[in-house]
Write a structure and sequence with these properties.
The chain is of the alpha+beta class. It has helices spanning 19-22, 33-53, 58-61, 119-125, 129-146, and strands at residues 3-11, 63-65, 71-73, 79-85, 88-94, 98-104, 164-171, 177-184, 188-194. A hairpin with a 5-residue loop joins strand 7 and strand 8.
Amino acid sequence: MISKVYMLLSNIYDEPIHTNEWLDDYTSKFIDNTRQQESFLARELLNQLCLQHIGEPLKKVGFEKDKYGRPILMKDRFYCSISHSNGWVLVGVSSISFGLDIEQTDHENFESLSSAFSIVEWEQLQNNSLDIFKAFSKKESISKLYGHGFLVEPSEIKQSNNLINWNTVLTTKSGKEFVVTAIAKERCDFSIQVKYGVEE
């Protein structure tokens, strides 16, 4: 049987968020309101996925951050990953280890990402801004898969042939473009549900 990675994508502008339910030591530390709302929404979406695919609410499953800030579900044999970008939040759960990422593209200012790539990688991307954002998002997903985040220099993170890669490009109703990427160590199906704000 092929494993599945279930993902939910939404945004803080359209999704109703129950802030009081998710206020805790971690979420109360945010000074930036957008970042705090993204954190609340991540828990709300993760709760929905836990109910749908684990059969229990997030608070019963248990959720915490490890020493690297990686989100962990406390229920045996379940993994989760969270990403956010400019008010958009992507979460996923699965019975297999995986990492995911969402990045808003900026086709005018992509050069700022050059430090995330080796010289050879940057030359191979040939100033194609969409390919650069896809490659950067892949590196971010790999860093989450292995749990080290960008404690490892992004230019040192390589895509190995044995990783399963999935990505898509979404455009919001307001015209913003996002790259969404998921990476797993083993063969699986990726399923994404977009709740609000994306063009059909």
